[in-house]
Design a protein that fits this description.
245 residues; alpha/beta; Carbamate kinase; eight-stranded mixed β-sheet; two-stranded antiparallel ribbon; globular; binds 3-methylbut-3-enyl trihydrogen diphosphate
């Protein structure tokens, strides 16, 4: 099986509150397999936009209303994605982690496994969850990808992002080169971009390393470009980076 995480910045415009990039979303969903994978999506501007303004990363600080709004907004994005998946013949079931996971406790994979066995595609997303220390906090879809990888040991994990892959230096520096294949190691830089309360690319790289250390290959590619996800899924040649154990 596969685990696929669609970054929120590919399917939404992170600078505009709740602004969908519908063409990208439809293209990506078209390229997905019909069975045997778990789909995780990010929040993009359905999550990061208000989280940043109202400091949701710092826990509950008189901002309860915005926790509620963001929690609802990410569900709204999830619902749009489910609609598109079902339209495309992908029988999916939403498993929002706020309804069963608390920061610090073991991640429960039970329902994911049961739905997969029935040939449904479990869909989950970066979410607002209970946190025993701060009340509530934000859990990124990348972190969820790690928890699920630990249990399911997928063939590979694919991160669909808004950059071509991993570069040998900050991609904004002239001469930066896209790396086609690397062994997991800590000395690779993604460069930072945009507003992102879950730590942007640096955090993503920590998660990628964690997954690779489990012995699972991780592919990083650009979801703005048609065909790359499809090729990566079926192990045809694709523009992007393979991080190998
Ligand atoms: C963020 O999830 C969740 C919220 C802000 C509520 P992600 O960190 O997975 O989202 P993207 O992929 O960066 O948009």
């Amino acid at each position: 099986m596969l685990i696929i995480k669609i970054g929120g910045s590919v399917i939404t415009d992170k600078n505009q509150y709740k602004k969908l990039k519908i063409d990208n979303l439809e293209n990506i969903i078209n390229e997905l397999p019909k069975k045997d994978f778990i789909l995780i999506h990010g929040a993009g501007s359905f999550g990061h936009y208000l989280s940043e303004i109202h400091n949701l990363n710092g826990g509950i600080l008189n901002n309860e209303k915005y926790f509620s709004i963001v929690s609802k907004d990410v569900l709204e994005l999830n619902n749009i994605i489910l609609d598109k998946l079902i339209e495309n013949g992908i029988n999916s079931i939403s498993l929002p982690i706020h309804s069963f996971h608390i920061v610090g406790s073991e991640f429960n994979t039970n329902l994911f496994e049961k739905y997969l066995r029935l040939n449904f595609i479990p869909v989950t997303f970066g979410d607002i969850i209970l946190n025993p220390k701060t009340g509530l906090s934000i859990c990124s879809g990348d972190q969820i990808a790690f928890h699920l990888s630990k249990y399911f040991r997928p063939e590979k994990v694919i991160f669909v992002t808004d950059v071509d892959g991993i570069y040998d230096r900050d991609p904004r520096i002239e001469g930066a080169r896209l790396i086609e294949e690397i062994k997991g190691n800590d000395n690779i830089s993604f460069g930072k971009r945009g507003n992102d309360v879950t730590g942007g690319m640096e955090n993503k790289f920590r998660v990628i390393n964690g997954i690779v250390k489990l012995g699972i290959p991780v592919y990083v590619l650009n979801g703005n470009e048609k065909g790359r996800l499809f090729n990566a899924i079926y192990d045809k040649e694709f523009v992007g980076t393979k991080v190998m154990p």
